[in-house]
Write a structure and sequence with these properties.
GO terms for molecular function: DNA binding. This is TolB-like protein/DNA-binding winged helix-turn-helix (WHTH) protein/Flp pilus assembly protein TadD. Pfam families: TPR_16, Trans_reg_C. The structure is a single chain. The protein is an alpha+beta fold. Among the domains are: 107 residues, Arc Repressor Mutant, subunit A, CATH 1.10.10; 132 residues, ABC-type transport auxiliary lipoprotein component (Rossmann fold, 3-Layer(aba) Sandwich), CATH 3.40.50; 103 residues, Alpha Horseshoe (Serine Threonine Protein Phosphatase 5, Tetratricopeptide repeat), CATH 1.25.40.10. It is built from 24 helices and 13 strands.
Length: 556
Protein backbone atom coordinates (compact mmCIF):
# COMPACT_ATOMS: atom_id res chain seq x y z
CA UNK A 1 0.00 0.00 0.00
CA UNK A 2 1.16 3.53 -0.84
CA UNK A 3 0.06 6.49 1.29
CA UNK A 4 -0.42 10.14 0.40
CA UNK A 5 -0.65 12.93 2.97
CA UNK A 6 -0.39 16.60 2.08
CA UNK A 7 2.62 17.00 -0.24
CA UNK A 8 4.10 13.59 0.64
CA UNK A 9 3.84 10.18 -1.02
CA UNK A 10 5.07 7.31 1.18
CA UNK A 11 5.77 3.80 -0.13
CA UNK A 12 6.93 1.61 2.81
CA UNK A 13 7.67 -1.44 0.63
CA UNK A 14 9.98 0.56 -1.60
CA UNK A 15 11.41 2.37 1.47
CA UNK A 16 10.68 5.66 -0.24
CA UNK A 17 9.27 8.97 1.02
CA UNK A 18 8.77 11.70 -1.58
CA UNK A 19 8.32 15.35 -0.64
CA UNK A 20 6.77 17.17 -3.62
CA UNK A 21 8.34 14.49 -5.79
CA UNK A 22 11.80 14.75 -4.21
CA UNK A 23 13.22 11.80 -2.21
CA UNK A 24 13.68 12.30 1.53
CA UNK A 25 16.44 10.12 3.09
CA UNK A 26 15.28 7.98 6.01
CA UNK A 27 17.44 5.96 8.38
CA UNK A 28 16.05 2.35 8.69
CA UNK A 29 14.67 2.72 12.23
CA UNK A 30 13.03 6.02 11.30
CA UNK A 31 11.50 4.33 8.25
CA UNK A 32 10.10 1.50 10.41
CA UNK A 33 8.75 3.98 12.94
CA UNK A 34 7.00 6.08 10.30
CA UNK A 35 5.58 2.95 8.66
CA UNK A 36 4.17 1.63 11.92
CA UNK A 37 2.63 4.96 12.88
CA UNK A 38 1.03 5.47 9.46
CA UNK A 39 -0.33 1.91 9.35
CA UNK A 40 -1.82 2.37 12.84
CA UNK A 41 -2.97 5.95 12.35
CA UNK A 42 -6.48 5.19 13.65
CA UNK A 43 -5.25 4.96 17.26
CA UNK A 44 -2.68 6.13 19.80
CA UNK A 45 0.43 3.93 19.86
CA UNK A 46 2.13 3.58 23.23
CA UNK A 47 5.87 3.75 23.87
CA UNK A 48 5.85 0.12 25.04
CA UNK A 49 4.26 -0.95 21.77
CA UNK A 50 6.88 0.94 19.79
CA UNK A 51 9.61 -0.76 21.83
CA UNK A 52 8.10 -4.14 20.92
CA UNK A 53 7.57 -3.39 17.24
CA UNK A 54 10.52 -1.17 16.32
CA UNK A 55 13.18 -2.43 18.75
CA UNK A 56 11.87 -6.03 19.00
CA UNK A 57 11.23 -5.74 22.72
CA UNK A 58 14.66 -4.36 23.54
CA UNK A 59 14.25 -1.67 26.17
CA UNK A 60 15.52 1.68 24.94
CA UNK A 61 15.72 5.01 26.69
CA UNK A 62 13.14 7.73 26.24
CA UNK A 63 15.93 9.83 24.71
CA UNK A 64 16.50 7.24 21.97
CA UNK A 65 12.78 7.05 21.17
CA UNK A 66 12.40 10.82 21.22
CA UNK A 67 15.37 11.17 18.85
CA UNK A 68 13.61 8.93 16.33
CA UNK A 69 10.29 10.75 16.80
CA UNK A 70 12.07 14.05 16.10
CA UNK A 71 13.66 12.50 13.01
CA UNK A 72 10.20 11.53 11.70
CA UNK A 73 8.95 15.06 12.30
CA UNK A 74 11.98 16.62 10.62
CA UNK A 75 11.49 14.41 7.57
CA UNK A 76 7.92 15.71 7.31
CA UNK A 77 8.74 19.34 8.07
CA UNK A 78 6.80 19.03 11.33
CA UNK A 79 7.76 19.91 14.90
CA UNK A 80 6.60 19.38 18.47
CA UNK A 81 4.69 22.67 18.45
CA UNK A 82 2.60 22.31 15.27
CA UNK A 83 2.22 18.50 15.45
CA UNK A 84 0.56 18.60 12.03
CA UNK A 85 1.48 15.01 11.22
CA UNK A 86 2.52 13.38 14.47
CA UNK A 87 0.76 14.20 17.73
CA UNK A 88 2.14 13.47 21.19
CA UNK A 89 -0.28 12.44 23.93
CA UNK A 90 1.57 12.84 27.26
CA UNK A 91 1.91 9.55 29.18
CA UNK A 92 -0.11 7.77 26.46
CA UNK A 93 1.93 7.71 23.26
CA UNK A 94 1.85 9.01 19.69
CA UNK A 95 -0.59 9.11 16.79
CA UNK A 96 -0.19 9.92 13.10
CA UNK A 97 -3.00 12.45 12.57
CA UNK A 98 -2.61 13.81 9.03
CA UNK A 99 -5.43 13.10 6.58
CA UNK A 100 -4.13 10.12 4.62
CA UNK A 101 -5.19 8.63 1.28
CA UNK A 102 -4.36 5.03 0.38
CA UNK A 103 -3.26 4.42 -3.20
CA UNK A 104 -2.54 1.40 -5.30
CA UNK A 105 0.87 1.36 -6.95
CA UNK A 106 -0.54 2.19 -10.40
CA UNK A 107 -2.45 5.17 -9.03
CA UNK A 108 0.46 6.61 -7.09
CA UNK A 109 2.41 7.63 -10.17
CA UNK A 110 -0.49 9.75 -11.39
CA UNK A 111 -1.65 11.06 -8.00
CA UNK A 112 -1.38 14.82 -7.56
CA UNK A 113 0.48 16.01 -4.50
CA UNK A 114 -1.86 17.76 -2.08
CA UNK A 115 -0.91 21.09 -0.58
CA UNK A 116 -1.38 21.61 3.15
CA UNK A 117 -5.00 22.44 3.86
CA UNK A 118 -4.31 25.42 6.09
CA UNK A 119 -0.82 26.83 6.10
CA UNK A 120 0.41 29.40 8.58
CA UNK A 121 1.14 31.67 5.61
CA UNK A 122 -2.48 31.52 4.48
CA UNK A 123 -3.88 32.18 7.96
CA UNK A 124 -1.60 35.19 8.38
CA UNK A 125 -2.46 36.75 5.03
CA UNK A 126 -6.24 36.40 4.80
CA UNK A 127 -6.52 40.19 4.55
CA UNK A 128 -4.50 40.46 1.34
CA UNK A 129 -6.50 41.23 -1.81
CA UNK A 130 -6.96 38.21 -4.14
CA UNK A 131 -4.92 39.73 -6.97
CA UNK A 132 -2.04 40.69 -4.71
CA UNK A 133 -2.20 37.31 -2.99
CA UNK A 134 -1.84 35.54 -6.33
CA UNK A 135 1.19 37.66 -7.18
CA UNK A 136 2.80 37.06 -3.78
CA UNK A 137 2.19 33.32 -3.97
CA UNK A 138 3.72 33.16 -7.43
CA UNK A 139 6.84 34.92 -6.14
CA UNK A 140 7.02 32.72 -3.05
CA UNK A 141 6.60 29.60 -5.17
CA UNK A 142 9.54 30.66 -7.29
CA UNK A 143 11.68 31.38 -4.23
CA UNK A 144 10.71 28.05 -2.66
CA UNK A 145 11.62 26.22 -5.84
CA UNK A 146 15.00 27.92 -6.03
CA UNK A 147 15.79 27.20 -2.39
CA UNK A 148 14.67 23.59 -2.67
CA UNK A 149 16.61 22.97 -5.85
CA UNK A 150 19.71 24.43 -4.20
CA UNK A 151 19.39 22.10 -1.26
CA UNK A 152 18.36 18.83 -2.88
CA UNK A 153 20.24 19.09 -6.17
CA UNK A 154 18.11 16.16 -7.30
CA UNK A 155 16.31 17.55 -10.34
CA UNK A 156 15.82 14.26 -12.15
CA UNK A 157 15.39 15.64 -15.62
CA UNK A 158 17.58 13.80 -18.09
CA UNK A 159 21.01 15.39 -18.50
CA UNK A 160 21.71 16.84 -21.93
CA UNK A 161 24.62 14.42 -22.28
CA UNK A 162 24.38 10.60 -22.49
CA UNK A 163 23.39 9.24 -19.08
CA UNK A 164 23.64 5.69 -17.77
CA UNK A 165 23.46 3.50 -14.69
CA UNK A 166 25.27 0.16 -14.49
CA UNK A 167 23.32 -2.38 -12.45
CA UNK A 168 25.40 -4.93 -10.52
CA UNK A 169 26.30 -7.82 -12.83
CA UNK A 170 24.78 -11.09 -11.65
CA UNK A 171 27.07 -13.87 -10.46
CA UNK A 172 26.05 -17.05 -12.33
CA UNK A 173 29.03 -19.11 -11.19
CA UNK A 174 27.02 -21.13 -8.69
CA UNK A 175 29.65 -20.19 -6.11
CA UNK A 176 28.93 -17.44 -3.61
CA UNK A 177 32.68 -16.98 -3.17
CA UNK A 178 32.81 -15.60 -6.72
CA UNK A 179 30.37 -12.79 -5.89
CA UNK A 180 33.26 -10.37 -5.39
CA UNK A 181 34.45 -10.98 -8.96
CA UNK A 182 31.11 -9.96 -10.48
CA UNK A 183 31.02 -6.90 -8.21
CA UNK A 184 34.57 -5.90 -9.12
CA UNK A 185 33.79 -6.29 -12.83
CA UNK A 186 30.79 -3.99 -12.38
CA UNK A 187 32.89 -1.37 -10.60
CA UNK A 188 35.52 -1.39 -13.34
CA UNK A 189 32.83 -0.91 -15.98
CA UNK A 190 31.43 2.08 -14.10
CA UNK A 191 34.92 3.59 -13.95
CA UNK A 192 35.56 2.97 -17.65
CA UNK A 193 32.18 4.36 -18.73
CA UNK A 194 32.99 7.52 -16.79
CA UNK A 195 35.78 8.05 -19.32
CA UNK A 196 33.32 8.42 -22.18
CA UNK A 197 33.63 12.09 -22.98
CA UNK A 198 30.62 14.01 -21.73
CA UNK A 199 28.82 10.99 -20.24
CA UNK A 200 26.84 11.16 -16.99
CA UNK A 201 27.33 7.91 -15.04
CA UNK A 202 25.62 7.13 -11.74
CA UNK A 203 28.16 6.36 -9.00
CA UNK A 204 28.86 2.79 -7.97
CA UNK A 205 27.47 2.97 -4.46
CA UNK A 206 24.04 3.98 -5.73
CA UNK A 207 24.29 1.26 -8.40
CA UNK A 208 24.93 -1.35 -5.74
CA UNK A 209 21.79 -0.45 -3.79
CA UNK A 210 19.95 -2.42 -6.50
CA UNK A 211 22.02 -5.56 -5.92
CA UNK A 212 19.99 -8.77 -5.35
CA UNK A 213 16.72 -6.89 -5.88
CA UNK A 214 14.32 -7.37 -8.82
CA UNK A 215 14.19 -4.14 -10.81
CA UNK A 216 12.13 -2.54 -13.52
CA UNK A 217 14.69 -0.84 -15.76
CA UNK A 218 12.20 1.86 -16.75
CA UNK A 219 11.53 2.70 -13.09
CA UNK A 220 15.25 2.67 -12.24
CA UNK A 221 15.99 5.04 -15.12
CA UNK A 222 13.19 7.38 -14.03
CA UNK A 223 14.21 7.31 -10.35
CA UNK A 224 17.83 8.15 -11.15
CA UNK A 225 17.20 10.53 -14.04
CA UNK A 226 19.19 8.58 -16.66
CA UNK A 227 18.43 7.41 -20.21
CA UNK A 228 20.25 4.07 -20.36
CA UNK A 229 20.61 1.01 -18.12
CA UNK A 230 23.43 -1.53 -18.50
CA UNK A 231 22.93 -4.96 -16.96
CA UNK A 232 24.56 -8.35 -17.36
CA UNK A 233 26.03 -11.45 -15.80
CA UNK A 234 29.39 -13.06 -15.06
CA UNK A 235 30.12 -16.78 -14.92
CA UNK A 236 33.60 -17.74 -13.76
CA UNK A 237 34.87 -21.31 -13.95
CA UNK A 238 38.51 -21.83 -13.05
CA UNK A 239 40.52 -19.54 -15.29
CA UNK A 240 37.68 -19.01 -17.79
CA UNK A 241 35.05 -16.28 -17.72
CA UNK A 242 31.78 -15.84 -19.63
CA UNK A 243 30.31 -12.35 -19.58
CA UNK A 244 26.94 -11.23 -20.95
CA UNK A 245 26.05 -7.55 -21.21
CA UNK A 246 23.08 -5.62 -22.57
CA UNK A 247 22.37 -1.92 -22.90
CA UNK A 248 18.71 -0.91 -22.53
CA UNK A 249 16.94 2.35 -23.28
CA UNK A 250 15.28 3.14 -19.96
CA UNK A 251 12.49 5.16 -21.57
CA UNK A 252 11.33 2.49 -24.02
CA UNK A 253 12.88 -0.74 -22.60
CA UNK A 254 14.33 -1.22 -26.08
CA UNK A 255 17.58 -3.24 -26.24
CA UNK A 256 20.15 -0.95 -27.81
CA UNK A 257 23.03 -3.44 -27.79
CA UNK A 258 24.01 -6.81 -26.31
CA UNK A 259 26.96 -9.19 -26.57
CA UNK A 260 28.60 -12.24 -24.96
CA UNK A 261 32.29 -12.80 -24.25
CA UNK A 262 34.14 -16.04 -23.47
CA UNK A 263 37.66 -15.27 -22.32
CA UNK A 264 40.53 -16.42 -20.16
CA UNK A 265 40.62 -14.75 -16.76
CA UNK A 266 43.87 -13.00 -17.67
CA UNK A 267 42.05 -11.35 -20.60
CA UNK A 268 39.14 -9.93 -18.59
CA UNK A 269 40.45 -6.39 -19.02
CA UNK A 270 40.00 -6.59 -22.78
CA UNK A 271 36.34 -7.53 -22.23
CA UNK A 272 35.85 -4.39 -20.16
CA UNK A 273 37.51 -2.33 -22.89
CA UNK A 274 35.30 -3.95 -25.56
CA UNK A 275 32.09 -3.36 -23.60
CA UNK A 276 33.02 0.26 -22.92
CA UNK A 277 33.96 0.88 -26.54
CA UNK A 278 30.76 -0.66 -27.90
CA UNK A 279 28.62 1.35 -25.51
CA UNK A 280 30.44 4.53 -26.51
CA UNK A 281 29.67 3.65 -30.13
CA UNK A 282 26.01 2.94 -29.33
CA UNK A 283 25.74 6.30 -27.55
CA UNK A 284 27.56 8.03 -30.43
CA UNK A 285 30.03 9.34 -27.87
CA UNK A 286 33.80 9.67 -27.88
CA UNK A 287 35.86 7.42 -25.61
CA UNK A 288 39.03 8.99 -24.30
CA UNK A 289 41.19 6.04 -25.32
CA UNK A 290 44.36 7.45 -23.84
CA UNK A 291 42.72 7.40 -20.42
CA UNK A 292 41.02 4.01 -20.67
CA UNK A 293 44.12 1.96 -20.06
CA UNK A 294 43.87 0.69 -16.50
CA UNK A 295 46.72 -0.81 -14.58
CA UNK A 296 47.25 -4.52 -15.37
CA UNK A 297 48.41 -7.04 -12.74
CA UNK A 298 52.20 -7.32 -12.73
CA UNK A 299 53.04 -10.15 -10.33
CA UNK A 300 50.45 -12.84 -10.94
CA UNK A 301 46.73 -12.99 -10.34
CA UNK A 302 46.75 -13.79 -6.61
CA UNK A 303 47.74 -10.30 -5.48
CA UNK A 304 45.26 -8.78 -7.94
CA UNK A 305 42.57 -11.12 -6.58
CA UNK A 306 43.27 -9.95 -3.01
CA UNK A 307 42.98 -6.33 -4.17
CA UNK A 308 39.63 -7.04 -5.84
CA UNK A 309 38.26 -8.77 -2.74
CA UNK A 310 39.45 -6.02 -0.43
CA UNK A 311 38.03 -3.17 -2.48
CA UNK A 312 34.67 -4.91 -2.92
CA UNK A 313 34.34 -4.96 0.88
CA UNK A 314 34.53 -1.15 0.74
CA UNK A 315 31.65 -0.66 -1.73
CA UNK A 316 29.13 -0.34 1.10
CA UNK A 317 30.89 -0.91 4.44
CA UNK A 318 28.32 -1.37 7.20
CA UNK A 319 30.45 -2.44 10.14
CA UNK A 320 33.94 -2.38 11.60
CA UNK A 321 34.36 -5.95 10.34
CA UNK A 322 34.08 -4.77 6.72
CA UNK A 323 36.99 -2.37 7.21
CA UNK A 324 39.01 -4.94 9.16
CA UNK A 325 38.54 -7.61 6.48
CA UNK A 326 39.27 -5.12 3.70
CA UNK A 327 42.53 -4.09 5.37
CA UNK A 328 43.60 -7.71 5.80
CA UNK A 329 42.99 -8.46 2.11
CA UNK A 330 44.58 -5.24 0.84
CA UNK A 331 47.64 -5.75 3.05
CA UNK A 332 48.05 -9.21 1.48
CA UNK A 333 47.75 -7.64 -1.97
CA UNK A 334 50.54 -5.11 -1.43
CA UNK A 335 52.73 -7.70 0.31
CA UNK A 336 52.57 -9.88 -2.81
CA UNK A 337 52.71 -6.99 -5.28
CA UNK A 338 53.42 -3.49 -3.91
CA UNK A 339 52.79 -2.11 -7.39
CA UNK A 340 48.97 -2.46 -7.35
CA UNK A 341 47.68 1.11 -7.19
CA UNK A 342 44.06 0.13 -6.46
CA UNK A 343 45.17 -1.73 -3.32
CA UNK A 344 46.90 1.40 -2.01
CA UNK A 345 43.90 3.64 -2.74
CA UNK A 346 41.73 1.08 -0.93
CA UNK A 347 44.06 1.19 2.06
CA UNK A 348 43.91 4.99 1.96
CA UNK A 349 40.13 4.78 2.32
CA UNK A 350 40.39 2.27 5.19
CA UNK A 351 42.78 4.52 7.12
CA UNK A 352 40.65 7.57 6.32
CA UNK A 353 37.62 5.83 7.86
CA UNK A 354 39.75 4.76 10.83
CA UNK A 355 40.71 8.39 11.43
CA UNK A 356 37.06 9.46 11.69
CA UNK A 357 35.65 6.65 13.88
CA UNK A 358 37.08 3.93 16.13
CA UNK A 359 37.73 0.70 14.20
CA UNK A 360 39.31 -1.94 16.48
CA UNK A 361 42.59 -3.20 15.12
CA UNK A 362 42.72 -0.50 12.46
CA UNK A 363 42.40 2.92 14.09
CA UNK A 364 45.66 4.44 15.27
CA UNK A 365 46.86 7.90 16.33
CA UNK A 366 48.46 8.31 12.90
CA UNK A 367 45.54 6.95 10.81
CA UNK A 368 45.15 10.33 9.08
CA UNK A 369 48.81 10.29 8.03
CA UNK A 370 48.64 6.63 6.94
CA UNK A 371 45.68 7.49 4.71
CA UNK A 372 47.52 10.31 2.97
CA UNK A 373 50.68 8.20 2.55
CA UNK A 374 48.73 5.32 0.98
CA UNK A 375 46.89 7.70 -1.38
CA UNK A 376 50.19 9.28 -2.45
CA UNK A 377 51.59 5.80 -3.12
CA UNK A 378 48.54 4.98 -5.27
CA UNK A 379 48.89 7.99 -7.57
CA UNK A 380 52.64 7.53 -7.84
CA UNK A 381 51.96 4.05 -9.24
CA UNK A 382 48.98 5.06 -11.40
CA UNK A 383 48.78 8.77 -12.30
CA UNK A 384 45.25 8.16 -13.63
CA UNK A 385 43.85 6.79 -10.34
CA UNK A 386 40.99 9.19 -9.53
CA UNK A 387 40.34 7.41 -6.22
CA UNK A 388 43.90 8.08 -5.11
CA UNK A 389 43.68 11.73 -6.09
CA UNK A 390 40.49 12.52 -4.18
CA UNK A 391 41.91 10.74 -1.13
CA UNK A 392 45.08 12.87 -1.31
CA UNK A 393 42.85 15.92 -1.70
CA UNK A 394 40.97 15.20 1.51
CA UNK A 395 44.23 14.34 3.25
CA UNK A 396 45.86 17.64 2.30
CA UNK A 397 42.74 19.62 3.28
CA UNK A 398 42.62 17.96 6.70
CA UNK A 399 46.35 18.55 7.20
CA UNK A 400 46.06 22.30 6.73
CA UNK A 401 47.07 22.36 3.05
CA UNK A 402 43.76 23.21 1.34
CA UNK A 403 45.38 24.64 -1.81
CA UNK A 404 47.15 21.32 -2.49
CA UNK A 405 43.93 19.56 -1.56
CA UNK A 406 41.93 21.55 -4.11
CA UNK A 407 44.50 20.79 -6.81
CA UNK A 408 44.24 17.05 -6.13
CA UNK A 409 40.42 17.21 -6.13
CA UNK A 410 40.46 19.02 -9.48
CA UNK A 411 42.68 16.29 -10.90
CA UNK A 412 40.30 13.61 -9.58
CA UNK A 413 37.30 15.32 -11.21
CA UNK A 414 39.17 15.69 -14.50
CA UNK A 415 40.16 12.01 -14.52
CA UNK A 416 36.67 10.82 -13.59
CA UNK A 417 33.94 13.48 -13.85
CA UNK A 418 31.44 10.98 -12.43
CA UNK A 419 33.28 10.15 -9.20
CA UNK A 420 30.94 11.51 -6.53
CA UNK A 421 33.66 11.39 -3.86
CA UNK A 422 35.82 13.73 -5.93
CA UNK A 423 33.07 16.35 -5.69
CA UNK A 424 32.78 15.90 -1.92
CA UNK A 425 36.56 16.33 -1.78
CA UNK A 426 36.33 19.56 -3.79
CA UNK A 427 33.52 20.83 -1.58
CA UNK A 428 35.49 20.20 1.60
CA UNK A 429 38.62 21.78 0.13
CA UNK A 430 36.65 24.89 -0.84
CA UNK A 431 35.25 25.14 2.69
CA UNK A 432 38.76 24.84 4.09
CA UNK A 433 39.76 27.68 1.75
CA UNK A 434 36.93 29.84 3.09
CA UNK A 435 34.82 29.50 -0.09
CA UNK A 436 31.55 27.91 1.08
CA UNK A 437 29.52 29.31 -1.83
CA UNK A 438 31.82 27.45 -4.22
CA UNK A 439 31.57 24.29 -2.11
CA UNK A 440 27.79 23.98 -2.43
CA UNK A 441 27.61 23.05 -6.16
CA UNK A 442 30.15 20.30 -5.56
CA UNK A 443 28.10 18.73 -2.76
CA UNK A 444 24.97 19.01 -4.92
CA UNK A 445 26.66 17.29 -7.88
CA UNK A 446 27.86 14.51 -5.59
CA UNK A 447 24.27 13.95 -4.47
CA UNK A 448 23.06 13.90 -8.08
CA UNK A 449 25.65 11.31 -9.06
CA UNK A 450 25.10 9.14 -5.98
CA UNK A 451 21.56 9.80 -4.70
CA UNK A 452 20.90 6.51 -2.91
CA UNK A 453 24.08 6.03 -0.90
CA UNK A 454 24.17 7.94 2.40
CA UNK A 455 22.61 11.16 1.08
CA UNK A 456 22.43 12.41 4.66
CA UNK A 457 26.22 12.96 4.60
CA UNK A 458 25.90 15.29 1.61
CA UNK A 459 23.01 17.15 3.25
CA UNK A 460 25.18 17.56 6.37
CA UNK A 461 28.00 19.11 4.34
CA UNK A 462 25.51 21.34 2.50
CA UNK A 463 24.12 22.47 5.85
CA UNK A 464 27.60 23.33 7.11
CA UNK A 465 28.40 25.19 3.89
CA UNK A 466 25.19 27.20 4.20
CA UNK A 467 26.11 28.02 7.81
CA UNK A 468 29.60 29.12 6.78
CA UNK A 469 27.96 31.29 4.11
CA UNK A 470 25.46 32.89 6.54
CA UNK A 471 22.46 31.21 4.86
CA UNK A 472 20.99 29.90 8.08
CA UNK A 473 17.46 29.14 6.89
CA UNK A 474 18.77 26.96 4.06
CA UNK A 475 21.14 25.34 6.56
CA UNK A 476 18.23 24.33 8.79
CA UNK A 477 16.41 22.70 5.85
CA UNK A 478 19.49 20.77 4.73
CA UNK A 479 20.44 19.69 8.26
CA UNK A 480 16.91 18.49 9.01
CA UNK A 481 17.17 16.29 5.92
CA UNK A 482 20.54 15.01 7.10
CA UNK A 483 19.20 14.14 10.55
CA UNK A 484 16.07 12.50 9.10
CA UNK A 485 18.38 10.08 7.29
CA UNK A 486 20.97 9.73 10.06
CA UNK A 487 19.55 10.79 13.45
CA UNK A 488 22.69 9.84 15.38
CA UNK A 489 25.16 11.94 13.36
CA UNK A 490 26.69 14.19 16.04
CA UNK A 491 28.03 16.91 13.74
CA UNK A 492 24.74 17.25 11.86
CA UNK A 493 22.94 17.66 15.18
CA UNK A 494 25.43 20.20 16.53
CA UNK A 495 25.29 22.16 13.26
CA UNK A 496 21.49 22.27 13.51
CA UNK A 497 21.78 23.62 17.06
CA UNK A 498 24.00 26.41 15.73
CA UNK A 499 21.68 27.28 12.85
CA UNK A 500 18.63 27.40 15.13
CA UNK A 501 20.43 29.66 17.60
CA UNK A 502 21.70 31.98 14.87
CA UNK A 503 18.14 32.43 13.60
CA UNK A 504 16.88 33.27 17.09
CA UNK A 505 15.01 30.00 17.67
CA UNK A 506 16.57 29.61 21.09
CA UNK A 507 14.05 27.23 22.67
CA UNK A 508 14.46 24.78 19.79
CA UNK A 509 18.23 25.26 19.82
CA UNK A 510 18.52 24.39 23.52
CA UNK A 511 16.31 21.31 23.08
CA UNK A 512 18.40 20.21 20.09
CA UNK A 513 21.60 20.79 22.09
CA UNK A 514 20.32 18.46 24.81
CA UNK A 515 19.76 15.78 22.17
CA UNK A 516 23.18 16.39 20.60
CA UNK A 517 24.96 15.97 23.93
CA UNK A 518 23.51 12.45 24.29
CA UNK A 519 25.11 11.31 21.04
CA UNK A 520 28.58 10.02 20.26
CA UNK A 521 30.59 12.93 21.63
CA UNK A 522 28.66 12.91 24.90
CA UNK A 523 29.25 15.49 27.60
CA UNK A 524 32.91 15.79 26.62
CA UNK A 525 31.95 18.10 23.75
CA UNK A 526 32.84 21.76 24.19
CA UNK A 527 33.57 24.72 21.96
CA UNK A 528 37.26 23.93 22.44
CA UNK A 529 37.01 20.23 21.46
CA UNK A 530 34.95 21.00 18.34
CA UNK A 531 37.42 23.70 17.29
CA UNK A 532 40.29 21.24 17.72
CA UNK A 533 38.60 18.52 15.64
CA UNK A 534 37.00 20.67 12.92
CA UNK A 535 39.08 23.83 12.53
CA UNK A 536 40.47 22.35 9.29
CA UNK A 537 37.04 23.08 7.76
CA UNK A 538 38.07 26.70 7.40
CA UNK A 539 37.35 30.11 8.91
CA UNK A 540 33.60 29.66 8.51
CA UNK A 541 33.57 27.02 11.24
CA UNK A 542 33.99 29.78 13.82
CA UNK A 543 30.49 30.88 12.88
CA UNK A 544 29.19 27.38 13.67
CA UNK A 545 30.84 27.69 17.08
CA UNK A 546 29.25 31.12 17.58
CA UNK A 547 25.81 29.57 17.22
CA UNK A 548 26.66 26.74 19.61
CA UNK A 549 27.94 29.26 22.12
CA UNK A 550 24.61 31.13 21.90
CA UNK A 551 22.75 27.87 22.56
CA UNK A 552 24.77 27.24 25.72
CA UNK A 553 27.56 24.84 24.73
CA UNK A 554 30.39 25.38 27.26
CA UNK A 555 33.73 26.77 26.16
CA UNK A 556 35.78 24.07 27.92
Amino acid sequence: MIYRFERFVFDPEAARLLDSGQPVPLEPQVLRLLTYLVENRDRIVSKDELNDEIWQGRVVSDAALNTRIRAVRRALGDDHVQQRFLRTYPKRGFQFVAKTDCLEADDAAEAPVMAPRESALRRAWLWVSPALLVLILVILSAVWWLDESEITATSLRLPAKPSIVVLPFENLSGDIDQEYFADAFTEDLITDLSRIRGAFVIARRTSFTFKDNPVDVKQVAADLGVRYVLEGSVRRSGDQVRINAQLIDGQTRHHVWSDRYDRALTDVFSVQDNVTGQIASALKAELRVAESQRQRPTAGLKAWDYALRGNVRLFNPKSAEDFQEAKTLLDKAVERDPGIASAWSGLAFVHFAASTRPIPGVSAPNSKDLSLEAAQRAISLDPKDAEGYWMTGVGYARNGQPERGMASCNTAMALNPNNDCAYVCAGLANMALGKPAEALPHFQQSLRLNPRFRPSTKYKYMGLAYLHNEQDTQAITALNRAIAGSPDDPMANFALVSALALTGRMEEARAALETSMTLAYGNRTTIETLRASHSWMGPGFERVLDGLRLAGLPEQ
